[in-house]
Amino acid sequence: MATSTDKKKEAIALLAKGATQAQVARSLSISRQAVSLWLKSETFRDEVQKARKDFLATQNEHENLELNSLVEKIPIPISEPITTFKSILRQREIDLLSKIELNLLPQLLEGSLRAASVLLKLSERRSKLLGLELPSWEILQAFEILILEKCADPHQIALVANGLDEITKQLKSSMDVTKTIEDT
């Protein structure tokens, strides 16, 4: 039979790996309230945070080895080192988006409408992650070159043009809101 200390150690490990309180309780055959009570202890929370950092560090080392073997890592300038759980997850997402983008760029250069659409969505996702909320103009410029070089057919051009019109409307409406706020 496991002692309370053993269950706490197991709970710390599970919480560090991202398990919810309910999942921890079910896994250890204890009540969710017990897990909640443990989490009220600053010492317990500190142990979970330390275990989470250790877990993420080992995950990042493993992923970095895989990522470096697949593509060159694109440096992203940041003003402070990544230390929070949230920022580590954000960096993972950005790395994943970069991998996807590198795999789709050749298809875009061949004139693939689907690749252009996915790259625009990817750009929007990256912008949201970074708090920019603006489309990547490099991708739009790449598609413009495809149009000028006549690599994209008229149907593809019309679809992308409609998408760009929608983006322009959204940008204008967000600028109008900003002006209204600044004017008041």
Our measurement of the CA-to-CA distance between the termini, rounded to an integer number of angstroms, reads 66 Å
H/E element order? HHHHHHHH
Strand content: under 5%
Indicate the low-confidence ranges by residue numbers: 70-75
Note the total helix count: 8
Helix and strand composition category: mainly alpha
- The tally of domains stands at 2
The residue-averaged pLDDT reads: 76
By DSSP, the count of extended strands is 0
Largest sheet: none
Estimated radius of gyration = 23 Å
Global morphology = elongated
Helix proportion range: over 70%
Summarize the structure.
With about 180 residues, the chain is mainly α. It has helices at about 5-15, 20-30, 30-40, 40-70, 85-110, 115-130, 135-150, 155-184. The chain has 8 helices and no strands.
What does this structure look like?
This protein has 184 residues and is mostly helical. It has 2 domains: 1-54; 71-183, no CATH class. It contains 8 helices and no strands. It has helices at residues 4-16, 21-28, 32-39, 42-70, 85-109, 113-130, 137-148, 154-183. It is elongated, with a radius of gyration of 23 Å. The termini are far apart. Residues 70-75 have low confidence and may be disordered.
